[in-house]
Design brief:
The protein has eight helices and 17 strands. By secondary structure, the protein is of the alpha/beta class. It folds into two domains: about 180 residues, Rossmann fold (3-Layer(aba) Sandwich); about 120 residues, 3-Layer(aba) Sandwich (Rossmann fold). It has a seven-stranded parallel β-sheet with strand order 7-11-6-1-4-5-12, sandwiched between helices. It has a five-stranded parallel β-sheet with strand order 14-13-15-16-17. Strands 8-9-10 form a three-stranded antiparallel β-sheet. Helix 2 links the parallel strand 4 and strand 5. Helix 3 packs across helix 4 and helix 5 packs parallel to helix 8. The chain binds flavin-adenine dinucleotide (FAD). Flavin-adenine dinucleotide binds next to helix 6, helix 7, strand 16 and helix 8.
Length: about 325
């Protein structure tokens, strides 16, 4: 088995993404455990000090494709450039992508180009004897399954939030920067991004210690405002299920779950939320979960620490009062 590890470095206007930093930390540890090296793959245009940042955060080599045709992410051009670079290096070992929208889009395409094997959405990537194993939660997150690839020299994994703790940059540590030639054919550039709007990040639910989330059960904008009042009194952030976002009571950046944000606050209060698996995956690692629901058999009660069976219109004002008295 080859012991080298490669990491795809995703970045945005704020620099390398958090999940990329986690993948780098995991990649560094896997390479060290196996006596291999860690390489980063960086694509984009006007990349500034990103190569140096990757070096200071553990990459031994940073392969850089800096070209204005790569300024905007496009699956076809990015797959072509990554595929060619890895083929030229006869890359073997492990290739980690962040399990982001971009990473989960690219990883299977790159895998196909290189006739490699791929495991998506791993919660862990570990060394297991002579090989690597990607671990995924299966069967409604009830079972942890390990997947090993035996038939290919390169194993591709996408890693989810929590795969490792990002490490701080090391002063004086530098990786070797290696430019990648960008050879693109007309057929690689069939799509063009004409306009790009970056949504303003106004909230950071991931940092919130208390989150109060409202679901379809709140039933109206007025009741949603009541839940917002509870969030304010509790010093927390308001969040929502997809049903509440679809109803127009909250914006998409407040949606918790599979297609929203994953959070791990100290306290998560779910109000009028049934507990569908797509919601649960975004909040199940909260330290304390309190659920308020009229239905004593609501699925959310199966994984809540405190279960309040009742109508939110009666329960929430009482909680607001209790909180006010408690903090007075
Ligand atoms: C591909 C895909 C991705 C998805 N991604 C997400 C995601 O990221 N996040 C997400 O949340 N969902 C997601 N969903 C949707 C998900 O499957 C559920 O439909 C959604 O989570 C339901 O939201 P809810 O619990 O608010 O509504 P419901 O399931 O309708 O539940 C409402 C609950 O409120 C209770 N209730 C009603 N009245 C009251 C009252 N007066 N007081 C107290 N309780 C009351 C009811 O008993 C019920 O349990 C996704 C679905 C798919 C297919």
């Amino acid at each position: 088995m080859t012991n080298d590890v490669w990491v795809y470095a995703e970045h945005d206007a704020d620099g390398l993404t958090d999940l990329t930093l986690q993948c780098l930390a995991r990649g560094r540890s896997l390479a060290d455990q196996q006596g291999g090296s860690l390489s980063a793959l960086l694509l984009g245009s006007a990349l500034g000090d990103l190569p140096a940042t990757l070096g200071s955060r553990g990459a031994d080599r940073v392969f850089v494709a800096d070209d204005e045709r790569l300024a905007q992410y496009s699956p076809m051009t990015y797959t072509r450039v990554i595929g060619s670079a890895l083929k030229e290096q006869a890359a073997a070992g492990a290739l980690l992508f962040p399990a982001s929208t971009q990473g989960n889009d690219l990883a299977p395409a790159v895998t196909q180009t290189l006739s490699a094997s791929c495991v998506l959405d791993c919660t862990a990537v570990d060394v297991d004897g002579e090989t690597l194993v990607g671990k995924r939660l299966e069967y409604d997150r009830k079972a942890l399954a390990g997947y090993k690839a035996t038939g290919s020299a390169l194993q591709v994994f996408t890693a989810q939030d929590g795969v490792a703790e990002a490490v701080s940059p090391e002063t004086g540590r530098a990786g070797e920067t290696i430019p990648v030639a960008v050879v693109l054919h007309e057929s690689d550039c069939v799509s063009k991004v004409l306009k790009r709007e970056i949504a303003q990040k106004t909230i950071n639910l991931k940092e919130a210690r208390v989150i109060v989330a409202a679901g379809a059960g709140v039933g109206s904008k007025e009741n949603f405002a009541l839940v917002e009042e509870l969030a304010a009194v509790a010093g927390g952030e308001i969040a929502a299920s997809r049903a509440a976002v679809d109803a127009g009571w909250a914006t998409l950046d407040r949606q918790i779950g599979q297609t929203g944000v994953t959070v791990r606050p100290d306290l998560y209060i779910a109000v009028g939320i049934s507990g569908a698996v797509q919601h649960r995956v975004g909040m199940m690692d909260s330290k304390r979960i309190v659920a308020i629901n009229v239905d004593a058999n609501a699925p959310i009660f199966r994984f809540s620490h405190y279960c309040i069976v009742g109508d939110l219109v009666e329960v929430v004002p009482k909680l607001i009062k209790l909180w006010q008295n408690y903090t007075r």
